[in-house]
Amino acid sequence: MAYTDDAVKAKLSSLNETQESIVSVSQWIMFHRRHADRTCAIWLERMRETTVNKRLTLIYLANEVVQQSKARRKDDFLVAFSPVIAEATATAYKGATNDVQDKIRRTVEVWSQRRIFDKPIQEAVEARITELDKSRSGKKGGLLGGSLFSSGPGSAAPAELQPLVPLQLALSKATATSTPATSTASTEFEKLTDPERPAPTPPVYAARLSALLKSLSRVESAVAESIKTREDLLEGLDQLLATNRAALEDEKTQLSQLQERREAMEKRKREVEDAIMRGVSTAETPSPTNDGEAISYVNGRNTSSVEPERPKMEELTPPPTETLAPTDTPGAGNKEPMRDPQPLHHPTTTALPSQQQHSPSYPTSTNPLPSFLSQDPRHAAHFRSGSGSGAPAKKRKLDVEFEGFGGGEDAMDELDEDVAELLRAESGGAV
Asked: CA 107, 112, 114, 115 torsion: positive or negative?
């Protein structure tokens, strides 16, 4: 089928909600992509004229065409639909049921996620839907009072940009209105001024000229409104730019001051560290050695290569026993070697005559009894008689071990007279 306006209208009239119908019509439209501007203009006219239920199908058709064009990297219909998509979406959304509105809103979200249209066009579409939601009673811009297409709390414009948001929305709306009208007026103008086309009859020609004049007048007003809105936006942007430039100069001045302060603090820090190091260096005290070379100590550590001399320490080994023996002790020079003690005999056992004959004789000590034994008569008698457990044997052993000290003489002879007299008095005159 050749491309004509009637053919496009026939295709749009036969469109239904089935996937086969939408895909078939979209393929025919994309085949004639060189007429993309004209097709989009007829599609917008059909959107305005058709019923509410039919508009959702036209939105699905536009969605199929633009997504296929995006996938095939053919921008003809993307450029053609961009000026009219905001107005067409708002027309289909207005007056529709909640179910239809949810489907249209979902389609717009898909465009945003897949970045089908440029950001200004996408924002214009979402702004038109948000305005319609706010105008409806009982529904204030979505579930939480914000835009239905906001990605989160961070998507809200900053306070500095709030005055520019209405201007940008107005500009997007004016552009969406003026662009398709300009395209339609340009097409009609080319048809009427094409010399190759046959001239129509004068009444028809006059009617077409009148329609073209109305179209041009409408487009002129739309473009003038768009220019005014854009000038207002630029004025707001200039104010924002001036504010940011003044803030930039202040920040540069603050940055310069901060750099100077940081450099000054770094210089002062180095001076303090140098003073600390100088104080540590003065604390190093040289210590002379035996060879005359100085030894440097820092914090108690030897920083030189010279090993200091070890201090002299007193020997802990005791002197030999011979040096402690008194030199005037009798028999110290000719001390006999110590003999093995004889086996001890129990005092109650009677010795045999042969044993008594060969038993060695021990010298009897003439020393008096100790004072702690002489005080008790029982102990003194026991000590003298040799009775008790092992007393004679201990006495004989002591006599054998220290036999060379007495030399058979009385030990009291070597004492002073006063000391000997005191000992005799304590022993009761036994000596």
From this structure: positive
Q: Token pair 């077409």 is at which residue?
A: 208
The angle subtended at Cα 79 by Cα 193 and Cα 17, nearest 5°, is 105
For 175, what's the count of Cα atoms within 13 Å in the CB-facing half-sphere?
19
Q: Cα–chain-centroid distance for residue 288?
A: 55
**CA-CA distance, 228 to 374, in Å (whole number)?**
142
Phi-psi region at 286: left, alpha or beta (left = phi > 0; alpha = psi -120 to 50): beta
Which of 91-105, 204-218, 381-395 is the least confident region?
Answer: 381-395
Tokens (6 digits) for 409: 């003489």
**∠ CA 412-395-414 to the nearest 5 degrees?**
10
Q: Which two tokens stand for residue 43?
A: 């599609």
Q: Is the pTM higher than 0.85?
A: no
Q: Which amino acid is at 74?
A: K
**C-alpha to C-alpha distance for 106 and 17, rounded to whole angstroms:** 16
Spell out the long-range contacts of 27-36 with Cβ–Cβ below 8 A and sequence spacing 24 or more: 28/1, 29/61, 29/65, 29/77, 30/65, 30/68, 30/69, 30/74, 30/77, 32/3, 33/69, 33/74, 33/76, 33/77, 34/76, 35/3, 36/76, 36/77, 36/79, 36/80
Nearest by Cα to 79 from 25, 27, 37, 28: 37
Q: What percent of the chain has pLDDT over 70?
A: 63
- On the question of pLDDT at 257 being above 90, the answer is yes
- 266-276 average pLDDT score: 92
25, 264, 268, 273 from 260: Cα distances, Å: 71, 6, 12, 20
pLDDT score, position 27: 92
Question: Residue written as tokens 């010795």?
Answer: 351
User: Beta 285-288 vs 294-298: how paired, if at all?
Assistant: antiparallel
